[in-house]
Amino acid sequence: MTDAAPTIYAAIPFTALVLLVALVAAVAVRSHLTGRGITPGMILWPLPFAALLGFVGVWCAMGLVMDTCSAADLVAYSVAVGGCGAITLARRRVFHRIDELAGVASHLLRAGRDAVLLVLAAALSVAALEGSWNRVGAQIPVSFILFAVGVVLAAMVALYFLGQRTGVLPCLVAFACIAFGIASHFVLRFKSAAILPSDLLAIGTAAAVSGNYTYELSRHIIFALALFALALCLLSFIHPGRPRNRRVLGANIAGNLCACGLVVAGALGLYNSVDVEEALDFTYDVWMPQFTYMQKGVIPSFLAVLQDLPIEESEGYDADEAQDIEDAYVQSFDLTAGATEARLAAEAQFNEMKPAVVAIMNESFSDLSIYEGLRAAGYTGPAFYNSLGDTLQRGALMSSVVGGGTCNTEFEFLTGNSMAFVGSGKYPYQLYDFSDVSNLAQQFDELGYKTTAIHPQLGSNWNRSNVYNQMGFDTFLTIDDFPDATWYHYGPSDRTCYDRILQMLREDPDPQFIFNVTMQNHGGYDAGTVLEEDLLGIAPEGITDPDTLSSLNTYLACIQASDRDLEYFINELRTIGRPVVLVFFGDHQPSVGPTLNEALYPGEDAFSHSWREFVSTYIIWANYDVAGNDQVSAWDELGANALGAQLLYDIGAPLSDQQKATLATRASVTSLNALGYRGADGICQALDANSFYSSTIDDLRKMQYLNFAEKVQ
Predict the structure, then answer these.
(1) Long-range contacts at 601-609 (CB < 8 A, ≥ 24 apart)
(2) Which of 198-202, 246-250, 300-304 holds the top average pLDDT?
(3) Helices 219-235 and 46-61 meet at what angle, rounded to 10?
(4) N or C: at which end does the chain have fewer Cβ atoms within 10 angstroms?
(5) Residues 184 and 243 both lie in one domain
(6) Which domain CATH number covers 481?
């Protein structure tokens, strides 16, 4: 907890509360004595303001108001909120004056009054939303503020008509804004993250863990609550007046409901037809969306993410048909690859041995010697990695991203789903709730394994803290768990991670599944971020730009360091005294990859040219003799979505139906990524190409919609 304001400050809002209650009581008694009667609104409208005063008073009494909030701040808050509550007592007099006007004048005055009050209330609600959490909210561009006010206003207008032109229901929009803003404050404070649409899908999980935190009100929240109170005060003065007769009342009700329907239909039409990012000319930060939320505002940013949620359903999709397709592939697998002597021997061995399984997704690790110009310049790739001769399997890994987007390769590996069927430019970790999505952590947990995720950086990066929790990992180690880490280039070194993994394997003999996303090789590759003696001095012919050469050699130095650390790690695993399986792979090529590709391979057709940029690499290795496998480094190209299934197959671990079906489809489509696929004939095709394998691609699309899209939408 931070330092709190003195608990005696609670007397300030409590005093205002007592005065407000006394005033309401006095006005009610006077109305009763003068024969004007007590209306429900006279009592009900001041209640929210009394609640706001009591809320802050209670929090202050519990020592949960930060010391940045002074006595003067609380006085200002109490005067503002108490004053707003008192002003609502004048509603009756104002309405009476308007009702006294005849005919059109009264209608025009009400309409104008309501329009102005709704606009002001919408603006105040947006100010309360941003002011409660966003320290740089004043820097949000005016166009984004106007857009946010427009969205809030549309919601208020719809509820204004639904509530028969009263201000009661629009108050719900104002409340939603302040609630979202306060929630954003605490999510940013506790998790360094923004609230995403996927968080709303997992609100039950969030509620379950919410008791682990201490919720202190900041000065900004206090002021935002005052703005919220002012919005409520304005909305309290929206009233339709008295209908002349029942016929007019019935017509008004019908007309208001029609108007509500038109506003909702128009708003949804705009949402479905207008791309928020394109309309406002911005792109949200998919790695750390909280930065976009701060710079562009909550509402534009949240809607931009929300528009990325839907996954396109394949034409003629039917869930029963998709299940039949998967069942057919499962049966094919069970009768062929699943029934071989090698697989059966591996299954028996796995069931008896339960080896530890370690998955290393090494940041930006790739073998750039696939570029002929680099080989000609003397670069032959990571030496130890390429010389390792006793792997169960190795080969090219087809990634769906290049230069960034690590979480998408991670998504493909852990869930077995492909970005090919999620949608262009999407990042599932930021969009969906993974609680019901099958994944490797869940599978190993069901086998009795302890499951640990490791990423020596902020847990909020790519929303991992939430996603790993939803996936069912028992433990997630972040940068906070590596206080004494040795750094290389961009972050804690690979060896730092490997030493922690070795410690875990030595201290706990129980079966473990450990998934490690490393950090040291992360871009950018600026000069001076690695030791001078580590630079290789590679200068491919045709590349003369000094910045490109500097970035290239910095990156190659990082890979050389990773290669050394991998050699250390594997040598330690050879003598660790327990069976361990290692799958090691790179998530994508570095940002310099496309630059090399452009310079070294000019004039190629666009598809073949792009395909090269998405080639990464993988190995599956074990420190024991795996039954049914001669361990002579058989080479096979895989899509990242199939790597997890192939790992389980090679070591004899149980496979899900989805994984069996994925492996069975490889008889036709050997590798798959967001760009396209390689058919069994060895030819690479774009996803929408009309080829002999199109039916298999359609089957894969339908099965993934069944196993993923239906569970997250």
Answers:
(1) 607/675, 607/676, 607/684, 607/686, 608/684
(2) 300-304
(3) 170
(4) N
(5) yes
(6) 3.40.720.10
- pLDDT tens for each residue of 168-191: 999 999 999 999 999 999 888 776
Nearest CA among 233, 263, 237 for reference residue 161:
263
- Distance, in Å, from the CA atom of 222 to the CA atom of 330, rounded to the nearest integer, reads 59
pLDDT tens sequence across 387-444 = 999 999 999 999 999 888 899 999 999 999 999 999 877 889 988 999 999 999 999 9
pLDDT in tens, 113-167: 999 999 999 999 999 999 999 999 999 999 999 999 999 999 999 999 999 999 9
Would 643 be classed as within a structural domain? no
Q: Which residue has the tokens 């695993």?
A: 573
Between 618 and 108, name the one with better pLDDT: 618
Distances (CA, A) of 704 to 204, 295, 421, 474: 26, 36, 7, 26
Domain assignment present for residue 644? The answer is no
* Side-by-side strand order, sheet with 676-679: 669-672, 676-679, 684-686
Does some domain include residue 657? Answer: no
470 and 402 in a single domain? The answer is: yes
Backbone φ/ψ region at 617: left (φ over 0), alpha (ψ -120 to 50), beta = beta
Structural domain for 457, as ranges? 361-579+587-621
Both 245 and 338 in one domain: the answer is no
Closest CA to 155 of 185, 187, 177: 177
pLDDT at 94 (0 to 100): 83
Distance CA 377, CA 262 (A): 67
* Domain-located, residue 538: yes
Asked if residue 148 lies in contact with residue 181, where contact means CB atoms within 8 angstroms, the answer is: no
Domain boundary among 601, 621, 641: 621
Q: What angle do CA 682, 685, 686 make, to 5 degrees?
A: 160
Q: How many CB atoms lie within 10 A of CB 704?
A: 26
For residue 14, the number of C-alpha atoms closer than 13 Å in the C-beta half-sphere is 10
Under the phi-then-psi rule, with left for phi > 0, alpha for psi from -120 to 50, and beta for the rest, what region is 633? left
Q: What is the per-residue pLDDT for 203?
A: 60
Give the span between the Cα atoms of 148 and 146, in whole angstroms. 5
Q: Are 511 and 606 contained in the same domain?
A: yes
134 in the same domain as 21: yes
Q: What is the 3-state secondary structure of 379-441?
A: CCCCHHHHHCCCCCEEEEEECCCCCCCHHHHHHHHHHCCCHHHCCCCCCHHHHCCCCCCCCHH
pLDDT tens digits, 441-480: 999 999 999 999 999 998 988 889 999 999 999 999 999 9
Please tell me whether residues 345 and 365 are part of one structural domain: no
Look up residue 292 and give its two tokens: 């976009």
Answer yes or no: do 156 and 238 share one domain. yes
Average pLDDT, the chain: 92
The residues pairing with 57 across neighbouring beta strands, listed in sequence order, are none
Same domain, 485 and 390: yes
